[in-house]
Amino acid sequence: MHLLRKELSELVTRQMLISLVMSFIIISMLGSLMTNVLTDEFTDYGTVRMIDQDQTEFTQQIIDKLQEDGYTVQTASDFTEGVNQYHWSEATLLPEGMTDLLLVQHEQCQVHSYTLLKTTSSVSLSMMGDSSTQTVVNAINSLLSDEYLQGDLDFLENPIQTVPYTQANNRTVQANPSLILSSLSLFDQLMPLLLFLLVVLTAQTIITAIAAEKADKTLETLLSSPVPRSTIIGAKMLAALIVALVYALTYGMAFLSTVVSTFSGNSGSVDIGETFSEVVATRHYAEELSLQIPFMGWVGVLAQLALTLGITLTASIILGALVEDSKNTQYASLPIMLCTMFPYILSMVSDIRNMGAVKWLLYCIPFTHTFIATANFRFHDLPLFFGGLVYQAVFLAFMVVLALKLYSSDLLFVHRSIFAKKKTTENE
Question: Among 36-50, 77-91, 283-297, 340-354, which stretch is predicted with the lowest mean pLDDT?
C-alpha cells in the first residue's frame, strides 16, 4: 500500500489535476456552444429571403403561402441590400415577368438562387445551397397545382412514396437505416473515442513518470530495495490504472454532458430534442434486428477493454524503461499512439472486417479487437470477438513476462552506464 501511494503521488500532480479540470470545463462548454450554433443555423434555416422583382398579386400569394407554412419571409430590393442591411447569406430572386410567363404564356420560368460564401464550416455549408430556393419553388408549384389541376392534388403532387426497409442478421424491418444507426452510434462512437484518449494519455503518463524516475535515479534505488520486482511493477500498473480510470470517468462525463446539451435544445423551427426522441424510439427496431448487445456481451466488451488497458500499461512500463530522459518520452509513446490511431480511424470510417487482406494486418494489433468489439456482437461475429479476446490475453501475458524479465535484470543499469560512458568518451 505504501508503494502504491508513492506511485500515485508521482502520477497525480497539481499540473495533472489542473489540466483535467480545465479539460472537463472546456469539453462541457462545447455542448453549450454547439447548441447555440445549431440554434442559430436552424433558426436561419426557417427563414426565406426573397427578392421580388415581379411585384404582382401572384408573387404576393407566394409570400402568403410560405407564411402559412410557418416560414418567416424577408424581402429586399436586391441581394447586395439584403447582405449589407439584413446580413443575408442566401436569397431567392423572382424575376420580372415571371407571372406573365407562368399564368399567361404557360411557359417555364427560372428563379435565381443567390448564395454568399463566407465560411468553410461543415454545418454552415450543409445549410447553404438550394434548400431555401427549393422551398420557394415548392410553394409556386403548389399554387399552380391549385390553379390548373383538378382532383386529388396529393396524389398528383406525390404519386410515389418510398418505404425504407433495413436488413441485418438475416432479419428485416420496415424502418429507416439512418435512424437505427443513430440510435446505436451514441455509444458505439463514444467508446472508441474514449478508448483512444485513454490509451494515449495512460501511455504518456506512465512513460513520463518512469523517465522522471530514471532521471532522478529514484528508479535505481527502488529496484535495489528488497521489495520484489513483481510488486514494484504491479504497484506501477495499479497506480497508472487508477489514473487512467480517472481520465476515462472525467472525459466520459464531459462528452456525455456535451451530447445531452446538444440534443436537449430547441433550435428554431427544428426541435433537436424531438429528433433525439425519434432516434431513441427506433431502438425497438434494433431489438427486432437482434442488434442489441446482451448483458454477457457487455461483460465481454469490458473484458476486452480491461485487456487493452493492461497491454497499454505493460507496454508503457517497458518503453519507459528504455527512455534515458524526459525529452524522449514523445518518441517512446509513438508506437502505442500509432497502433491505436490506425485502427481507431479505420473503425470510424469503414468496416475493418471487410477490408480484405489488410484486416489481417490490423488484427495483429491487439487494440483493433476492442475498437470493433461492439460491432462483432451486434452483427453476431462471435468467433472473431472471442478470437480477439484470447489473442489479447496471450499478448498481455507475453508483455507481462517481458516486463518482469526486463525489470528483474540489470539491463536497465547496464544500458544507462553504457550510455553514460559513451557520452563521457565523446566529451573527452
Answer: 36-50
Please, where are the H alpha helices in 69-130?
Answer: 79-86, 98-99, 122-127
The pLDDT value given to residue 8? 67
Q: Which fold has domain 47-156?
A: abc type-2 transporter like fold (3.40.1710)
**pLDDT tier at 271 (50, 70, 90 boundaries)?**
very low
- List where CATH 3.40.1710.10 sits in the chain: 47-156
Pick 290 or 235 by higher pLDDT: 290
CA angle, 231 then 234 then 238, to 5°? 140
Nine-digit cell string for 232:
514494484
- What is the CB-side half-sphere exposure of residue 79 using CA atoms within 13 A? 12
Note the pTM of the prediction, 2 decimals: 0.65
CA distance 343 to 345: 6
Which residue would you say has higher pLDDT here, 57 or 213?
A: 57
Q: Are 41 and 123 in contact (CB under 8 A)?
A: yes
Place of cell 490475453: 393
Q: Cα dihedral sign for 84, 90, 95, 98?
A: negative
